[in-house]
Design goal:
single chain; 127 residues; two-stranded antiparallel sheet; 4 strands; 17% strand; elongated
Length: 127
């Protein structure tokens, strides 16, 4: 019982993290500077690892994608040559990631629903 619940809950958390990370990337698609002035926003990815006890562990890490250079001489963050460093984020790729995460979330909800229904049937049989 606890194993199924752990698997479902970890899957829901991982899918939720993937959706929010993708949304965060899209929201920062034009962010050319960070609050600490360390350069443009760095896109993030979610890494998911299977756990031996069942379920998954997910965490966020920088994607490693290098910023793209765009010529925008009037931009406040442009260097002396008019070049602005922007995050290397592909909106279509983020849309696909969020759709995949949404499907994963719904699948985990379905597992929880079927598990709950099965438990109810078993209780009806044994009570």
């Amino acid at each position: 019982m606890a194993i199924t619940t752990n698997i479902v809950n970890s899957g829901l958390r991982a899918a939720s993290l993937r959706i929010s990370t993708s949304a965060n990337n899209v929201a920062n698609i034009e962010s050319t500077s960070t609050p600490k002035n360390t350069g443009p926003y760095i896109p993030q990815d979610v890494v998911q690892i299977s756990q031996e006890i069942g379920g998954t562990y997910a965490y966020v890490k920088d994607s490693g994608k290098r910023p793209i250079s765009v010529f925008e001489p009037d931009h406040p963050d442009a260097d002396s040559g008019g070049i602005v460093k922007k995050p290397n984020i592909a909106p279509a790729e983020e849309l696909i990631k969020s759709q995949q995460a949404s499907v994963s979330y719904r699948a985990n909800l379905k597992v929880a629903e079927v598990y709950s229904d099965t438990q109810k049937v078993l209780l009806d049989i044994f009570v």
